[in-house]
Design goal:
Order of helices and strands: HHHHHHHEEHEEEEE
Strand order of the largest sheet: 6-5-4-3-7
Largest sheet: 5 strands, antiparallel
Oligomer: single chain
Shape: elongated
Number of strands: 7
Length: about 375
């Protein structure tokens, strides 16, 4: 019991001396040991890294999920360690509405068929968006969050401990100055001990702070992964819309209004044509050229087969299609009666339709 009382008294005395030292420093009544310039620069860099990591994370979350209520709900589920309920995103909701309305008007009508095609494309874009969010969360947001909740918290802990050791050192220096000759040796011995503890803590803190360079290198790799995920997403969305435009362009420009007799005339529906810039990335490069078109035309007329390189990933929309992986090489051939925008693809024992816009014929 006496030991505990003495220990509590010693701790209270230490706390009091730190408080006195801190207060006197604030009022300019005591000297303060300054950290070396290198350590100060490392502290500033770590703090900047923390602040910008938080800001980038926040803006990325807003980009991926603009609805603040949904973000809050996902945050609560994450803290409760529960699975977030699956819900359709805006593209999928729009696609669902288009498909339902198209079925209502009739898949056999031009308008109904167009609505269904647009709805299917919107749902494809919704799926691509869902994959982007998933990839960004795993390869971009999670590593950033791990730094804030892991490495930086450790840095903060050691930094606070360094501040405590610095206050102990300066308090000891003050006692040396104020000590009587008889107490001088004991005060100087205490100061040397606190100096050693401060130096050791400064070295630990410095090593942790220098590790922020590795954090920057890791976050750079995460940034590359995020850019790659966005590139894939936008390329998929672009290709989905190009394919949809081709399908809409094949529809008749007018059809009879079933609510009126043929003598009353017809209602006209115009399908806009969107010009595609040739400056877009490799998704469009090559396919619009006469050389590429000529190669596919030659393949269709010869009824032979050719090797083709896949330009980017393609997820089969039905069992009659073949899923593709970017940069793989497959065998393609033409089948009589097949749509001109498709070829038959083969990979080993797998076989299915593939869109020519995803392919580059090899010599």
């Amino acid at each position: 019991m006496d030991f505990n009382v003495k220990r509590l008294a010693a701790d209270a005395g230490t706390f009091l001396s730190r408080a006195v030292q801190f207060t006197e420093e604030k009022f300019g009544q005591a000297e303060k040991t300054e950290l070396d310039a290198h350590l100060e620069n490392l502290l500033v860099r770590a703090e900047n890294t923390k602040q910008w990591t938080e800001r980038i994370m926040k803006q990325t979350e807003v980009l991926l999920q603009p609805n603040p209520n949904v973000r809050l709900e996902e945050f609560v589920y994450e803290k409760l360690e529960k699975k977030v309920p699956t819900r359709m995103n805006n593209h999928e909701l729009l696609g669902q509405s288009m498909i339902e309305s198209g079925n209502e008007f009739g898949p056999g009508t031009a308008y109904g068929n167009a609505l269904i095609k647009c709805g299917e494309t919107e749902k494809q874009i919704g799926g691509a968006e869902r994959e982007l969010i998933k990839t960004a969360a795993i390869h971009f947001l999670t590593p950033f969050r791990n730094f804030l909740e892991g490495d930086f918290k450790t840095i903060q802990k050691e930094r606070k401990l360094l501040q405590v050791k610095r206050l102990d050192l300066d308090a000891a220096k003050t006692r040396v100055k104020k000590a009587r000759m008889a107490d001088k040796n004991a005060a100087e011995q205490e100061m040397r001990m606190t100096q050693s503890e401060f130096d050791r803590q400064a070295e630990i803190t410095r090593l942790l702070l220098e590790g922020v360079s590795s954090t920057h290198a890791h976050q750079l790799r995460c940034l590359n992964d995020f850019v790659e995920a966005q590139t894939t997403y936008y390329a998929q969305c672009y290709q989905y819309m190009v394919d949809l435009q081709k399908q809409l362009g094949s529809f008749p420009s007018s059809f009879s209004n079933n609510n009126q007799s043929s003598a009353s005339g017809t209602a006209s529906i115009s399908v806009p044509t969107i010009s595609v810039s040739a400056s877009l990335p490799s998704v469009s490069a090559g396919h619009g050229s006469s050389t590429a078109s000529g190669g596919f035309n030659e393949l269709r007329s010869s009824n032979g087969s050719r090797k083709a390189r896949v330009l980017y990933d393609y997820d089969a929309a039905s069992s009659s299609e073949l899923s593709l992986l970017a940069d793989e090489v497959i065998t393609v051939s033409s089948v009589p009666g097949m749509d001109s925008d498709w070829l038959m693809g083969e990979r080993g024992t797998q076989k299915g339709k593939v869109p020519i816009t995803y392919l580059e014929l090899l010599n």
